[in-house]
Structure formats: structure tokens, C-alpha cells
Amino acid sequence: MKHERPGIELSGQPFSFAEMVRIGSGRVTLSASEIGMQRVRIARSIVEDAIESGMPVYGATTGVGAMKDVEWSPEDLDAFNLGLVRAHHFGTGTPFSCNVVRNAMAMRVNTALTGQVGCTPDLIDAYMRMLRADLIPVVRRTGSIGCADIGLMGQIGAVLTGVGEAIYRGNRMQAAEAFQAAGMEPVKMAPRDSLASLSVNAVSFAAAAETTRNAAASIRVLLATGMMASGALGASRDPWRAVRHVGTAREALIGAWLCNASDEWEWPVATHVQDALSLRMIAQVFGAVIENLLSTGHKILAATGRSDDNPVVVEGRVMTSGGSLPLDVTILLESAALCMAHAARNAFNRCVLLGNGQRRGLPVNLVPPGRIATGFGPIIKLAGEIFSRVLSMSNPVSAQSLVVAAGLEDEAAFLPLVIERFDRQMRALKRLAALEALLSAQAIDIIGDTPKGVAGMLYEVVRKHAAFYTVDRPLSAEVEAIEEELGSDAFLSKLIEQVPIASFDDFFALGSLERIEERLTREPAII
């Protein structure tokens, strides 16, 4: 029986990762709760009363930034509010995915439904109509210092007024053409709506959520290849058992997973009083990594239900605010970037162990006995390059100084840059996992082991794309093919099904969209 996908009602409450995956896919119907819309109407009346009284309202009846003291006459307001969003369409570079932009638009609606923004109900309706029509603005990714995504959200706001570019039914076109094709009209920006459409961090939060979820998926696979490499190297499982009793809660969780994931394999233990730290301490390394990722994920989700506007409507007044600085999310993401470097080093060290010929009688460079070949020595240099690449992107950038807008804007988090570097790390980790799996499969075949369970799944993927190495050959395409399959939602879903880490997998909604929807179709989500 085919089940209809339930809708999601936005209400001002924080999103979950599962909800963001579904919103980003464009395969769910969104609506705004009546309670939330009532809050929007109340906040709007407060803004209109302030404007009517002659009180300057930043970005509504005054200029912004260095032009904050310029007040506009009632006759000038239409031209100012139209120009404000168009002036902030200055982003450049490769566009964000439609998934990120959909989530950013939904997030803008959701935080407005808290009743702390003061925009018109018409602006909410305009966002919702675009989302329902799947008319998605093209948002180029370079254009925010991380203190309100003005150059990113401004591209969405500009499209609302009929300029810029949009994706409609899979085709990229001018915004005016997209509106015409969708049978819609551009929006006339009322006072406050213009600034409300551009001066928030919604694009960065949406991108941070996507990249953090992808990092969680990469770490899940890298943990599995670490277990496979440990088996190939004949590591003792006792440290993984021990950590379940003496480690932190997260370390114990990883230790339990390592034991459970390796139970089906007749574990090839070599005799070592002490294994290398990269084998003994997998639980400690990955325990710290997932602890950080969970903390980062929770912080990102909290931001999806919190107004970071300036000004805001609170206590029945329009107040200036400093909430547009997303430093809490940024600092945790920078910490996550450091965690990625530790995970990369851990995997790289095992790759070196696999190739240096010092365990289980494995030959140097994993060249089978009697064969004339250079083997895997050169490719371990690739693993080293990937580790160095991940490490180079782990240094913090959020505390650097920048002063713009006549000195008014002298704090910034550089969140989009942090996200971009984190995303590049995550992609590098996927390749490192492919290399670790490839080297492990070669070692397993040389020794004559028969991997089962999770290790068997990884082995099958490797051997699907790369034969046992006996004669020197190009490996680039093979590594990329292994990387692509191990990084797929389909493989991750199989891995989770085989041995789950429920508190981690379900929080980040890892795996395929079908797996996520299967868990959520029982009743509509309200967020």
C-alpha cells in the first residue's frame, strides 16, 4: 500500500535533522501554524504602531549599517525597501544546493513564527508560496561574514521582488521568468519586510546542518573501516571491551559498537601485549568526535527556532538586537573541524601500519610474496596528503578582526567560511575511508582471512571495484568508485541496519530518505 507523505507544519519550534532532510528534498508539503501566524500579526501591529508614532525603526524607516541615521520619508519607503534587498544581492561563486536553500527559506518562516520579527503576514505567505511551487532562488555561496547572511539571504529576498535567478522545475532562469512560469507575482516589500528577508543567518544554519549531518555519515563509515583495518592487522579487541567499563559514555558506546560489529568475524588476533595507539584508542578518538558532533548538531537545531533578527519585537516593543552573531554555532563547528583532524590522523596511522610490513607477517607495501610490484606504497602518500589537507583546515578563523560599515560592524563569526572548510574536510574523510578499506582488503586477502558482518560488507564493496593487487596498475578510478559507494545513502542504510548506533544515527537521520520517512510517516510533524 502506498502511503501519502505527511506534511510539516511550521510553528516556531526548532527543526529536527529528519525534518530538514525532508524539507530539503522538496518532497513534503509545508504549512504555517495558525498560532504562529497570530504571533506574526501581533508583532506586526507593534511595528506598525512604532512607525505610525514617528519612532525610527532600523531598516524599516531608516537606512542600515553606516546609513542608520538616514531617515526616509513615507514617500521614499517603497523605493528604499525594494532597493534594500536588491542592493544585498552581491553573492558570488558556486550556488548552494536547492536542499540548503529550501531549508533556509523554511527556517526564515519558522523563526518569524516566534512573533519576534515584525514582518508582515504577506511576507510569510510569499515564502510559503515559493516553497509550495518549488521556485527556489539561486544563492551563490560567497557573500557573508557570518553576522547575518545579508549577501546570501539577500539573493532570496531579491528573487522575491522579481530579480536575480531561480530554479524552477529543474531549470535555472531569471526570477521574472520563473514567476511567470509558476503563475505567480513578485512581492512588494513593506517596511521591515525587506530587512527581515535578508538580515538573518538562515542560509548558514541550513548549510551547517547539511554539512554536519554529512560529517556524521562520513565518521560512521570511517569508524567501520577502522574496525576492518584493525582486524586485518590482528589487533586485540580487549581495549574495546575495557572502554565499556572505564571510558566515558560516548567512548563506551563506540567500544560496544566495535565489539558488536566485529563479532561475526572470526577475529584474527595476533599476539601483542600492546597494540599501536591507533588501534587501541579508536573508541577514545571516535567517542570524542561523536560527542562533539552531537553537541554541534543540537546547537544548530536550536538556532532553527530562534529569531536572530535585528531589530526584534519583544516585551511589546521594537528593540535593537545583537542576536545576529552566530558565535555559539561557529565555535562548535570549529571544534568539530579539529575533531575531523583527529579522526583523519587515526585513520592515516592505520594505513601506515597496513603498509609498513610489521604486523602479522604482512609484506611491505602489501605486495604479495613472489610478485614484482611497487604495490601500495605510493597510495599511502595519498592518505598522508588527505590527512594533511584535513589538518590544514582545522585552525580557527572566527576570531580574526574585521571592521566595516563605518565601524558599526566590528564583530563577525565567518560562519560560512567555517562551514566551507568543514565541508571540504568531510569530503576528504570519505576518500580516506576508501583508502583504508582498499588497503585492508589487500591485507585480508594476503593473510587469507574471511571477513564477516560489517567488515564483509566493506570487503565486498572494495572487491566490486578493485581486484586483488598483484601487478602495478592505476588506482585513481578504483579509489573514487569505492569512495562513491561507501559514501552513498544506500550503503550507510545497510551499515546502520547491520549494527546501529541508534542515539547517533537517528539524531542525524542518517541513511536514505526512504529510511527517514519510514520512521516519520505515522503522524504529521509539527515544528
Automatic annotation (TrEMBL):
Enzyme nomenclature, EC number: 4.3.1.3
Keyword flag Lyase: yes
- Which keywords has UniProt assigned to this entry? Lyase
A GO MF annotation of the entry reads: histidine ammonia-lyase activity
Q: What is the name of this protein?
A: Histidine ammonia-lyase
| Keyword Lyase applies | yes
Please indicate which superkingdom the organism of origin belongs to.
Answer: Bacteria
Coiled-coil stretches are none
Upper classification of the source organism reads: Bacteria, Pseudomonadati, Pseudomonadota, Alphaproteobacteria, Hyphomicrobiales
Q: List where the protein spans the membrane.
A: none
Q: Name one Pfam family in it.
A: Lyase_aromatic
